[in-house]
């Protein structure tokens, strides 16, 4: 309000970004996206995993994805914040930590 720009909460702002991206990809204005719509993203076309990323949006046998499916699939690519990390420096180390990887995973997989 007034001369100050309105600030959306982070979740609402992210939702708006997703809607804008979905709308920009939906060239046919059908409310759905096809694989061809994803192939208009140059970064996906040249990415070695591009086909796998695109296929993640389409359950087997489906030719299109709606906004809900689009956002659900995007959630798989979003990093998870772990606010419950152990404060105990002597506690167990995560399996995917740098030192666990450098030491070799075999001792953690026994």
UniProtKB/TrEMBL annotation:
* Ranges for region Disordered: 1-31, 81-110
Q: Does the keyword RNA-binding apply?
A: no
Query: Annotated Gene Ontology MF terms?
Result: metal ion binding
Q: Where in the cell is it found?
A: Cell membrane; Cytoplasm
Basic and acidic residues biased stretches = 16-29, 81-90
Keywords from UniProt, A to Z, are:
Calcium, Cell membrane, Cytoplasm, Lipoprotein, Membrane, Metal-binding, Myristate, Phosphoprotein, Repeat, Transport
Presence of keyword Chloroplast: no
- Give the signal peptide, or none: none
A GO cellular-component term linked to this record: plasma membrane
Chief subcellular location = membrane
Q: Which PANTHER family match?
A: EG:114D9.1 PROTEIN-RELATED
**What's the protein name?**
EF-hand domain-containing protein
Native organism is: Colobus angolensis palliatus (Peters' Angolan colobus)
């Amino acid at each position: 309000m007034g001369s100050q720009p309105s600030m959306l909460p982070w979740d609402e702002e992210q939702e708006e970004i997703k809607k804008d991206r979905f709308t920009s990809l939906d060239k046919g204005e059908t409310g759905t996206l096809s694989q061809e719509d994803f192939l208009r993203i140059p970064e996906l076309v040249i990415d070695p995993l591009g086909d796998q990323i695109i296929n993640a949006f389409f359950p087997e046998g489906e030719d299109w994805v709606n906004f809900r499916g689009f956002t659900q699939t995007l959630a798989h690519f979003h990093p998870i914040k772990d606010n419950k990390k152990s404060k105990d420096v002597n506690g167990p180390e995560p399996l995917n930590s740098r030192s666990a990887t450098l030491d070799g995973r075999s001792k953690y997989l026994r």
